[in-house]
Amino acid sequence: MIKSIDEYLDQLKEQLKGSDSATVQDALSDAEDHLTAALTNLKQEQPDMSEEEAFGQVVEQYGTPSETASAYKEVERLTHPVLASRSPQDQSIIARFFGVYTDARAWGALLYMLIAFVTGVIYFTWAVTGVSVSVSFLIFIFGFPLALLFLLSVRGLALLEGRLVEALLGIRMPRRPLFSHQDMKWFDRLKALLTDKATWLMLVYMLIQFVLGTTYFVLFVTVLSLSLSFIALPFIQLFWNMPVMQWGVERIFLPYWGLVLISIGGLLLWTSFMHLARGIGQLHGRMAKAMLVTD
Amino acid sequence: MVDSSALTKKFQKELNSGLASLVLLSTLRHSEEPMYGYQIAKLLEENSGDSIFMKQGALYPVLRSLEGSGLLESKVEPSVSGPPRRYYEITSEGRETLVVWQGVWEQMKSFVDKAIKGA
């Protein structure tokens, strides 16, 4: 017999073992919301009902943990995230190679590589400032609430990053903040945040994102400008009579076949990079999921 | 001996899984304001009388999947008591889809009725 919401959530989590971790978080926060609201409501309507009886009635209507778990599993089986992969199997290699242009995940990953530069800088600055300010103010009493606020902001940013990763990279991430026990005092809350491995992983992610974001951005800009200039070379030489290279007074022009080759090379380079970007996106998504989604 | 109550339960479950989307979408279509999960569950419970349509816990994954396909949209707002609430609202895409689904349902209903009556 289940006696409290926390107990119900624990059992639900147990029943959902093996499901997608984002689904588990959805299920837990839905159940927590509903059971809290239903219990409050029932107590207002029938104040003389015992706690145990009221909870039993609420669970009776909501469904047992195993019933609820099977409902989520069923829906999870039928739905996929927006950009989830479709497998192109019976296509030629060429069609698959250039098919990347119609793949939303590749474009999403490219966009993510640009955005990661900006978010990386912001996360890094925020994390470093937050940690140093919180730690040094801990000698004063007001350092504690400050640290709590900072750690909560880390959770918030991790959630935001999760939404970004899900939208652009097509990896399922949690849709709600991690559920926490409501009746905690703020000091206990700080302690819970500090001892939670998830908080530290999120902080590390914010630091790593700076390095990764810069790398992604440099890669993106370098390959884009190289490919574009390769593709544009024939036009520049033919219409503006500008050489490929200038060596003192010597001006080097490419023969026509060279121009065609280098132009095709530019196109191939960019197309390969789109494949690479998609791969990087998937890897990054998996890393983000491992670090930002907690069980 | 066939366990008829288990079979009935399974039948009910299979029937519900498709209809829940239609019911939830219609409920939110008729509602003037965005609603949160418990509110929807409560309303359905009042309308259903004695017969239990489905467990309330099973409504939430359907809401989430409808949101995932763009037929609903949601926003989280803090509440006075307890955790923040997720409010669901039908999108214009959802309204269009609902009209189509209602058509499908009408057809299905008359087909099933005919089959049952043996006409």
Order of helices and strands of chain B: HEHHEEH
Total count of strands of chain B: 3
The greatest interface between two protein chains, and residues involved on each side, is: A-B, 31 and 24 residues
* Shape, per Cα inertia axes of chain A: elongated
What would you report as the Rg of chain A, rounded to the nearest angstrom? Answer: 27 Å
Largest sheet of chain B: 3 strands, antiparallel
The number of distinct β-strands of chain A equals 2
Distance between the termini of chain B: 31 Å
Per the principal axes of the C-alpha atoms, what is the gross shape of chain B? globular
Quickly count the helices of chain A: 10
Order of helices and strands of chain A: HHHHHHHHHEEH
* Strand order in the largest sheet of chain A: 1-2
> What percent of residues of chain B are in strands?
5-15%
Bin the helical content of chain B: 55-70%
Helix content of chain A: over 70%
How many helical stretches of chain B? Answer: 4
Instruction: Give the class of chain B from helix and strand content and strand pairing.
Output: mainly alpha
List low-pLDDT spans of chain B: none
Low-confidence stretches of chain A: 82-87
Tags for this model:
heterodimer; A: 295 residues; mainly alpha; two-stranded antiparallel sheet; 10 helices; 75% helix; 2% strand; B: 119 residues; 3 strands
Characterization of the model:
The complex is a heterodimer of chains A (295) and B (119). Chain A is mostly helical and 295 residues long. Chain A has helices at 5-15, 21-45, 51-62, 65-78, 93-98, 104-137, 143-169, 186-195, 197-240, 256-292, and strands at residues 245-247, 250-252. Chain A has a two-stranded antiparallel ribbon with strand order 1-2. The longest helix of chain A is centred in the last third of the chain and has 44 residues, at 197-240. Chain A is elongated. The two termini of chain A are 24 Å apart. The model of chain A is unreliable at 82-87 (pLDDT under 50). Chain B is mainly alpha-helical and 119 residues long. Chain B is built from four helices and three strands, in the order αβααββα. Chain B has a three-stranded antiparallel sheet with strand order 1-3-2. In chain B, a hairpin with a 7-residue loop joins strand 2 (72-77) and strand 3. In chain B, helix 1 crosses helix 3 and helix 1 packs antiparallel against helix 4 (92-117). The mean pLDDT of chain B is 84.
